[in-house]
Each structure stands twice: as structure tokens, then as C-alpha cells.
Amino acid sequence: MINFQYARAADVADAVRQIAADPSAKFIAGGTNLIDLMKDDVERPSRLIDISRLPLKSIEATADGGLRIGALVPNSDLAYHPLIAERYPMLASAILAGASQQLRNMASTGGNLLQRTRCYYFYDTATPCNKREPGSGCPAVNGINRMHAILGASDSCIATHPSDMCVALAALEATVHVTGPHGERAIAFADFHRLPGDTPERDTNLGADEIVTAAELPAQGFATNYTYLKIRDRLSYAFALVSVAAALELDGETIAQARLALGGVAHKPWRDPEAEAALCGKAASSEVFAQAADLLLRDAKGFAHNAFKIELARRVIVRALTQAARGTPQSQSSKKIR
Amino acid sequence: MAPARARPGNRTIQPPEKITISLTINGAKTQLAIAPWTTLLDALRDHLDLTGTKKGCDHGQCGACTVLVDGRRINSCLTLAVMKDGAKVTTIEGLATNGTLHPLQQAFIEHDAFQCGYCTPGQICSAAGLIAEGKAKTAEEIRELMSGNICRCGAYPNIVAAIQQAMGQS
Q1: What is the reported pLDDT for B96?
Q2: Percent of chain A with pLDDT over 70
Q3: A46 in contact with B at a CB cutoff of 8 Å?
Q4: Which pLDDT tens digit goes with each residue over A314-328?
Q5: Which among B4, B19, B126 is the nearest to A102, CB-wise?
Q6: What is the chain B residue with the closest CA to A50?
Q7: Confidence band (pLDDT; 50, 70, 90) for B17?
Q8: B129 interfacial to chain A (CB closer than 8 Å)
Q9: Residues with Cβ within 8 Å of residue A231, at least 6 apart in sequence
Q10: Rounded to an integer, what distance in angstroms lies between the CA atom of residue A153 and that of residue B44?
Q11: Could you tell me the pTM of the whole model?
């Protein structure tokens, strides 16, 4: 870790002023990802602006029936909040599927959105990486790429976004609230994270001088028919190979509305409007679920070590939709997949 | 440590002044002048001589550094001490009271819940946090919510048994 200056932000406006004044400064909240990256010399900020004491720690009802989650609400507090557990259980489940309780106690909501890929080459400063050093190359394309993307990758980068929480937030169509020097703006969740394209160094559409202040959930929580099904190399405390957040509104046996978001497969939580539309108006059945999975994976591309993820994703989508339709969400303590 | 090679953004940074913070550690208020990059783990071990808290991976992956900050279990290796100015920290050294072991410490002994013992301070602090959270009732839930603490000796069945015993007493 290189030496750095440390300052506390007095309020959101002060945080924005401080980050605008020093392009090589970074905000720090939970620190669970940033300090790790600083120890590995991947992140080298000149200054850390401590935002952890800002008043962004509340969860409040919104006028249109949703919830506004302050950017500094710790992941564990969010997962166990009574309103989240009751109205947005898919979000609670996704959060509890990620990291460890110690890390969830530290990690913030805003920081979870901004966590960086766990691609081994991104972490290893002895190797090139277009995300870390634009233009240096991507060793993952022809290297060890078991954990890498099967959807939306580019020649420049095949990294995946590591978050579980964000997969549920994508499925729930959350909104991200940010503040910058020119005021506040709201970003639809689907537009928050980016695909790598030619600029994999940019994970999100958050401006360099902007701060995340909240994530807002709409009223619809899919609290009856949902699941978060995560497949990984060990049963706990590991990143997803494939994860699926599935949420349905059923009218009897008929699917009235469907949401399907995948983690571990792309540079951002992956949604496909066509696959979701293909489920609507149909009777819930494994054939219909398989058709939606095929549609979602129609452009999937495997690399030397991760081609298995395509068939895995197909099966996890079908199983997740089955769990959602049955109203039997995946337990994050019992690891049996039913 | 020097970077592997020069990269854009390399620069010389004036070493900042040390920052004076105040921590209440195991009930005792302490003032400490430290550099901002000092982790809470290094502050405990190297500045305060509280070496019960262990450095395992130093990357938040093993849980050996687990301590309680304001009653919540965290990884002290991924925590900057300056950010915890004013906090109450409990380490393994602070669990026993008046010479009597904490019920978790006693249970770990009774259940032989360790072999080499290196992960044990983190396991016990983590378990203390788990009991305070009150979310784990079954052995399955204990296993899941203790998954942030790795035991290379594989003492997991006895660790779960020890935690169950201590939970029954609390």
C-alpha cells in the first residue's frame, strides 16, 4: 500500500468538493474492497476521503410506496431490515449469499455497487490488464478464465461484476441516486454498470466527481414468487460462477410479469428484456423456462475454461424460475437445491 | 513495497503527519498517533502489543483478524484505524472477566475446537458477534454465518459444537 493523505468529509457537498479538487483521491466507506486493492497496489489513491460518517445510513419509505436505502447502510443491516425481509426478500437473500458476515457488517450499499471485478489478472500488477492499465492487453482472453464472462464481453475485457446484491437490485429495477458538482441525478439500475467495450477501465457511469447517496427500490417487491440461486465452487463465502435472481407475478398458473437477472456471467448484472417478455402470458412450466433460458443465452460465448457456464446458466435459470413459481425460494443456510 | 513497474499516476507523496485517534480497547481508553494507512489489525498488534488478534491472509479472506467494533464483528485487516476514531474495540484479550474465561473460550476448550489455534481468537470473536446478532439458531445457520472464519486444521464440527454450547448459556 502506498502512502496517502486522509481527510473526513463534513457533508455530501464537502465530499463532492474534495473529490473534485483531487482527481487521484478516492472515497472510502466500508473499505472492504478498496483497502484490499490498495494492499495489492491495484488502487493507488493520493488521498482517501472518509465518507463513513455522513448521514446516509437510513432506510426510508418513499412517496410512491418504495424504499430509499442510504448509501452507507451496511449490507448486513440492509439484509436484516424488517421492511427488506418482508417486502424485498429476494434482495435480502442475495445479500446473504455474498461475502461473510464480518464483511457484510463493514460493506456499504454504495460500495457494493462500486466493487471491482475479482479477475485474477486485474489483481496481479505483474500482468497486463486493460481495466487496470488501459491499452496494456487482456491476458484473461487466452489465459485462465474459469470465472469470466460468457455474455457481453469484448476483446478488451472478459471480467465479471462480482456482486450478489446488485443482481437482485437489477431484477427489482432499483434507481441509483448520485450527487455531483452540478447537483443530483438518478440513474436507472440497468444504466449504472457498463459493458466493457473499449473502455473496461470504467465499470460504471458514475462520474469521477460524483458520490452515490442512495439506492431506491420501487414499490413492487415480488415478495411471493422469487428466488436467488447462486452456484459457486464452495457452499459459502465464494463468488458466483452463475447466480440467478428470478421474480414472477403469477395470475393463477399464468406468468403476468417476470424478472430475470444473472450474476457471475457478465461485466454487469445481466438482464434480457426479450427473455423476460417471452415468459409473460405463458403458463409456468419447465419448457417455458427452458425457452426463456435459451433466449437469454442465445449470444453466450465461452472461453477455454468457462464454456461450462453456458449449460450451467441454462440449468440455473430453469431451476430458479421453478423455485420462484413454486414459491419455494432458495435458502441461503440450507444448501440443498430443490 | 516498490511497485512492479512504473505506471501512470505514480507520484511522490509527502508523508502526512500522524493522526491522533482515541479508541476504547477492552474497556480501556487509549490515545494513539498513527499513520492513516495503519490497519486496525496492525494498530492492535504493533502499536498496542495486543497480539491475540492474528494476521492470517491480511485480505479479508480468512477471518483470523476478526474483532468486535462497537459490538459488531469485522475484519480488522481491512479496517483503517483512523476511521474508527472514538470506537469501542473488543479483542480476544478482552473477553474474559476477572480471570474467568468467556463462555465461548470455555466451550472451545471443552469441545477441543481447535488444533493449531491460530484461527481461534478470530473464531471466538466472530462467534461472540454471531451470538449478539441472534440470527443463527441451528447448526446449519451457525455454519453459514461462521463461513468467514477459515480453520485450516478443519476443527469445524467441534467449533460448531462449542458455539452451540455457548449459545445455550447466553
Answers
A1: 97
A2: 100
A3: yes
A4: 999 999 999 999 999
A5: B126
A6: B83
A7: confident
A8: yes
A9: A240, A241, A242, A243, A312, A316
A10: 44
A11: 0.96
